[in-house]
Amino acid sequence: MARFAAPCLVLLALAGCYASSPGSEIDVAVRREIRAHGLTGDPAAGRDLPEIDEPLPQLGLKLFFSKSLGGDRDSACVSCHHPALAGGDALALSIGVGADEPDLLGPGRTHPDGDLTVPRNAPSTFNLAVWETALFWDSRVERLEDGIRTPDSDFGTADAEAGSTLSEAQARFPVTSADEMRGFEFVAGGTNDDVRTALEDRLTDDGRWGAEFEAVFGSPEITYGRIAEAIAAYEDSQSFTDTPWRAYVEGERAAISEEAKRGALLFFRSMEEGGFDCASCHAGDFFTDESFHAVAAPQIGRGKGDGSTGTNDYGRARETADRNDRFSFRTPTLLNVGATGPYFHSGAYANLADVVRHHLDPNRALERFDPASVPMAAGEDFIDNTQEMIDFLDVSGRGIGFFRNPTAYTDIQIAELVAFLESLTDPCVRDRDCLGPWIADPALHDVDGQVLVAIDQDGEPL
């Protein structure tokens, strides 16, 4: 479904389609980069993705918005991943359970502790189905040759209960996290499977969910495997790839600005060619190599219990137990990046210009970073955490190249790169009406009186 792309005949009246003429010098140069990088514009092309109006994603939508999957019934999947917030929550770090106002999502959501309580930034669920190898910042759900590894299985070992897709495997875990959905009293002391069984029993005992499952699966049996399959189908239906950049790649020269085209050259060209070689990590149509890099992102918030302060986050090393992986995190996709901030695993930056500057000169950016600029994010250990990271990256040599060899840049170049990055955002993700099919309607989707009807900090519906 092409929401953005205009027919070529219409564009002929404005600037002409690429196929009809070679275009300007900059168009020729950008086209050369597109060919060199093998881009098609659409990372979802050829994938058999569910449509939101199909029965399984519809059940997933009801479950995704239901606080019945929260241990204390005060959170749902959507608490951290609302479509109107670009599939995330627009917070540096999330607040899952125990919020002062459970239905208030995004900026203005607070916790009695006065902090942001989830250690890492909530990644967008948009285009989740496009990920090939792994999910989460540390890829603790990852595809192996013989299945999918999850936190329930040893590193390098497939989890027999993971399901058939990364999305299904991922959907098994937010409900087991005390900070995110489980709470600190629900099935106290129980295992992850104990939590899932208790949720199965909760929905079964309610008596109203059985008919929903029977309509989709042919029997009223409620298992967490079915719950995860439905939620995954809902998430996988969130395919938002109709970007201005895609339209440009497909031939519509007027789809992006001249500034964005100059930014594209900076993005794709190597340093030797006068660019910044961003595509060496943000590769392909999905703009990620799905690998791990230490970009020296500021560590704010509670962290994951690492380091001398217990407030640092060793990233991928927490999974591999390889110290060389410390402070490395999975490369995020740049699809819809204009709408999915704050950025980095810690949500340290709220705007793209600061993110670009950080990548090009991490040490300078860290010197200038003020943790107080991030509302409610504990920053008292920022200096100690940062110094530990810098010391490690200095000794190990594991940081990205710009950490050791920063590059000069101009404000004009930053603006051009940001203009290009903005062209990677599907207009639908900023349009509440366009996103409507993925947002629960209490009149249609409230099975048991527990649907989360989200509001913003002004009390207005999201």
How big a fraction of the residues is strand? under 5%
What does the average pLDDT come to? 95
- CATH first level of the largest domain: Mainly Alpha
- CATH topology title of the largest domain: Cytochrome Bc1 Complex, Chain D, domain 2
Helix content: 25-40%
Output the CATH homologous superfamily of the largest domain: Cytochrome c-like domain
Describe the structure.
By secondary structure, the protein is mostly helical. The protein has two domains: 8-42 and 241-422, Cytochrome Bc1 Complex, Chain D, domain 2 (Orthogonal Bundle); 55-239 and 429-445, Orthogonal Bundle (Cytochrome Bc1 Complex, Chain D, domain 2). It has 18 helices and five strands. Mean pLDDT is 95; it is low at 1-20.
Topology, please?
Elements: H1 8-12, H2 25-36, H3 55-64, E1 134-135, E2 141-144, E3 147-149, H4 166-170, H5 178-182, H6 192-206, H7 209-217, H8 224-236, H9 244-249, H10 258-268, E4 292-293, H11 317-320, E5 329-330, H12 352-360, H13 362-368, H14 382-396, H15 401-404, H16 411-422, H17 432-435, H18 442-445
Antiparallel strand pairs: 1-2, 2-3, 4-5
Question: What brief labels describe this structure?
Answer:
single chain; mainly alpha; Cytochrome Bc1 Complex, Chain D, domain 2; 32% helix; globular
